[in-house]
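User: Quick sanity check before I run a bigger batch. Here is a single chain. Can you write out its predicted 3D structure?
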Amino acid sequence: MTSTPAGTPTQAWGEPRSRTVVWHDPMTTALAGAAMSGLDYLQAMADGVLPPAPIAGLMQLGLTEVDAGRVVFTCRPDESAYNPIGAVHGGLVCTLLDSVAGCALHSTLPQGRGYTSIEIKVNYLKGVRVESGLLTAVGTVVKAGSRVGFTEGIVTDESGAVVATATSTLLIFDLPG
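Assistant: Done. Predicted structure follows.
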């Protein structure tokens, strides 16, 4: 449902644009992941053996590299991620950072263990637009304890300029079942 203020000349808005989002049953992937180490689980997603999480399709994220304690995601934002001032919404960049921070930690966890973000602190250093090109986010583990993990993330644009950084604290727990 689109709401237009009375008297707004909607034809001046131009042609509407759209994008289709496709995903697979997330619980099938989650159940498969519960039987694997975090590193094996993420590698299976990177290799296309398991489908990515639904958020990856929505935000156009791709898991491109996985190592113990380090992951790389890419994202090519389009206008559908723009905020009202004509730039990519910071929430997309924060989601990208939260994803690499969490998955970096997940890559160190044994089978039966999971994580959730406790907090994330993001520093936005440069605006992102379609012209910024492919964003690359690298997440690394600073310290993985038995109950809490600490990670870092950095996002660069296609020119290599840093657009945002983050530090994250994550809770580590036993998965149910």
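The chain has a mean pLDDT of 94.

User: Great, the batch can go ahead then.
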